[in-house]
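Quick start: load a record and inspect it. Here is OmpA/MotB domain protein:
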Amino acid sequence: MRFLLLFLFALPALPTSGQAIKLSDKPTKTVFAIKAIDDKTEADIPAHFIIKTSLARKKFEGNSRVGKEFEFILTRADTLDVIATAKGYQEAEELMVVTCDTCANYGYAIRLEKADSVFRNLQVNQAIRLDKVYFDQSSYHMRPESYEQLDKLVRTLQTQPALSIEIAGHTDNVGDRRLNQLLSENRAKVITNYLVRNGIPEKRLRYNGYGDTRPAAPNDVEENKRKNRRVEFVVLGK
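Running the structure step on this input writes:
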């Protein structure tokens, strides 16, 4: 986490002799506008923000676009926990101490670093867990948030034409073993179909479901069972 202290303040104009200071002259809110930029090019990036305030105990959530910041209202000095996410970039989190409660407007750009776009240093027989591929419980319906990591696998296969892989589905030992084997196979098949739809030749792919026959950890506690409910790709050749 990166910590950034922002000290925002405004100096009011001094009144002339005999002039009263009106409380209404003091801004009662700050419009905070935030966006994300590429750490190297400083170009705007469409991003999603989750912002939590410590003192006011409020949560703001929204998106910025190219040329358009995400705006929210602060009504007091506060500490902000800001989380920014964007496709193809590493998540960033910054803690901001905003001391200004008299500034009408404030803008800030959070810098994001690009995520690694391909899987690297692959070795034959190596198994890589697809830890950001998600399915509905007891189902082979794949959730849309899985696409980002699968797109990374697509790019890996595109940039390494000799690479061939197996998609391997696994489960824990809870429930009917036959159904678990079928579930693991269908999940592996869904991922393989996604790769084919995105231009990867079928001859470079195969899929298998192993059910609970190849556990990554003992099926004794829930934490270990979660480790066993997984999908991996295994390097067959390169």
